Amino acid sequence: MTILVTGATGFVGSAVVRRLVDRGAGVRVLVRPTSDRRNLEGLPVDLAVGDLTDPPSLAAALKNCRGLFHVAADYRLWVRDPARMFAANVDGTRAIMLAASEAGVQRIVYTSSVATLGARSDGIAANEDSPVVYEDMIGPYKRSKFLAETEVRRLVSEQGLPIVIVNPSTPVGPRDIKPTPTGRMIVEAACGRMPAYVDTGLNVVHVDDVAAGHLLAYDKGRIGERYILGGEDMGLKEILSEIAAIAGRRAPAIRVPRRLILPLAYLAEAWARLAGGKEPFVTVDGLRMAGKKMYFSSAKAKADLGYNPRPARQALRDAVAWFRDKGYCR
């Protein structure tokens, strides 16, 4: 049995690949010619060079595959050219789903995000059925993932594609080589460079538990259903304090109103545009997202799939240890 994994060189995708390899599955990975392949070193996988924007390469990658994990996504809170993000996240998702259908793939897990769900303003954990509309989406990443998931659900209902959807919350842990926006926050906090915080919160989960949830969805998930793969709800102050304790740093003590940071975010984005498009550490959309605590319930995944994530503090400890070991924080 061969299973194709997209996004396999990335943070979540490489964790999924490791779980599949441990299971003894035959794994093929879709990689771009320019992909950083460090996360695949030493793994017995078959490389298929291609791109989500190149349909013929998708057909070749899916040949003789029984399953597909579509994990790949352009995950950034700020982009110089949003059209490229939409092309990858929306058009690319549609293209690989149609290619999988044409190839006769029997089972598909699509990695969406809690970014597509309706976070509550009262701080209570949201679930898969919390009301949400496109207009609630902040920034190109959330909008593109919302449209991509909408397209996936359409393909299930109208064309009968065998897709199960998973919605990871905020994964942390080892092998965040890029790193992700959350990973960058952990690095800055572990290095003692975050003396202040804003009043917001996240649902923190170990990346390896998210990967385990993907395989549970593949084995037990119901077609067309979505499952939140989360961990624990934590306020940002609590997260940063925990990282500080792990790293032997001073915990942040100053709470800064978001409105005071907003001018800095506009300046940071302006500089990023002039300096070549590298994502700034603080962004306007990131601050707008912080207006709601991103708290979510994984009760459905626990009940239906047997999903069982470890404590969030263990995830943070593993993340700090990995970043330190790899020299991100000196």
In a few lines, what is going on in this structure?
Helices cover 43% and strands 15% of the residues. The protein is of the alpha/beta class.
Structure description:
It is a single chain. The chain has 330 residues and is an alpha/beta fold. It has a single domain, classed as Rossmann fold (3-Layer(aba) Sandwich). 43% of the residues lie in helices and 15% in strands. It contains eleven helices and twelve strands. The strands form three sheets. It has a seven-stranded parallel β-sheet with strand order 3-2-1-4-5-6-10, with helices on both faces. It has a three-stranded mixed β-sheet with strand order 7-9-11. β1, α1 and β2 form a beta-alpha-beta unit. α3 runs parallel beside α4. The radius of gyration is 19 Å and the shape is globular. The N and C termini lie far apart (44 Å).
Give the secondary structure arrangement, pairings included:
Elements: E1 2-6, H1 11-23, E2 26-31, E3 46-49, H2 55-61, E4 67-70, H3 82-103, E5 107-111, H4 139-159, E6 163-168, E7 170-172, H5 181-190, E8 196-197, E9 201-206, H6 207-220, E10 226-229, E11 232-235, H7 236-247, E12 254-255, H8 258-274, H9 284-289, H10 299-305, H11 312-325
Parallel strand pairs: 1-2, 1-4, 2-3, 4-5, 5-6, 6-10, 7-9, 8-12
Antiparallel strand pairs: 9-11
